[in-house]
Design goal:
Length: 167
């Protein structure tokens, strides 16, 4: 039996043995959703548009062998001179099967690419929740998760370099 060479020179095994990198979305789901409309019904009489503050965070944990849960948490608060119009918190998660991927590439995938894949669905859930609360749908702009990951990685490396220089 002969061995074949894969795309980047690694050897693939015969008889269906699998050693090529694979990534797949297993499932995605709303993990937590909270919508507050504390000043209803008066809020619907307010004449001034509220200011919108959007915060997001990404979390990752290993759910099982070769399975990672990536959670995109989005918090939105709309407030004006008269108080809070609405506040919504969404934790939207994706389960990703990751096999035969080098360990050093898992974190970049989970913090840059995985959030990019689930963001459109989280964005829709958020827009629907705001609309169902009696407000115009909130459509978030696309986010460059890869750029943010690279920026944070550079900042962390810079901080490590400064800490090593002080030691």
């Amino acid at each position: 039996m002969t061995e074949e060479t894969g795309a980047q020179g690694e050897e693939t095994l015969g008889n269906g043995a699998d050693n090529m990198p694979q990534v797949a979305i297993i499932s995605q789901y709303v993990k937590d959703l909270s919508f507050e409309n504390p000043n209803a019904p008066a809020v619907y009489q307010w004449q001034v548009q509220p200011q919108i503050d959007v915060q997001f965070n990404i979390g990752m944990n290993k759910a099982a062998d070769d399975v990672y849960e990536v959670v995109l948490k989005i918090e939105v608060r709309a407030h004006g001179d008269q108080g809070v119009a609405f506040a919504v918190e969404l934790s939207y998660a994706g389960l990703f099967g990751i096999r035969n991927v080098p360990e050093e590439q898992i974190q970049p995938f989970c913090y840059a690419e995985a959030p990019r894949l689930v963001f459109p669905f989280a964005r829709r859930v958020l827009a629907d929740a705001v609309r169902d609360g009696g407000f115009p749908p909130l459509l978030l702009e696309p986010i460059d998760f890869a750029g943010l990951y690279m920026q944070q990685a550079q900042q962390a490396a810079q901080l490590q370099g400064e800490a090593a220089g002080q030691a």
